[in-house]
Amino acid sequence: MDWQIVFQLILSVLAGAVMGAEREVKKKEAGLQTYSLVSLGSCLFVIIGFNFFEVFSNAVNVSFDPSRLILSVATGIGFIGAGVIILRQTRVEGITTAAGLWCAAAIGVAIGAKLYFLSFVSLILAVAILSGFGILEKMFFGKENK
Question: Where are the domains of the chain?
Fold first, then answer.
């Protein structure tokens, strides 16, 4: 059993859960499960891509670039993000959730690529943005937290 991969998968779930917990506190539809699955799926795609690269790196007439898989994750999560954005009368809802899911996917990608420090710092920044910037928007710009 490859314990490194197990560690990466569990770490990606935990990172997604940390972001999702903040969304749960704010009673958003996308929460623990959604953020955890997005981070896990992204991490898994990267692990698979890197392993395929190792398998096919010496093969003749085979071109495999794991960075294309990362691009596909970023593109694919855009479809999920588009699905959570809703226009209600004169305001748009779900943009922060869509951006959070996109960020959770990127953190999962970083964990899958074994960029642990980058993923940790990004997670801290993402949670700070999700939990604290709404307060700043209300104080300085008069926006209501929803």
Answer: 3-141
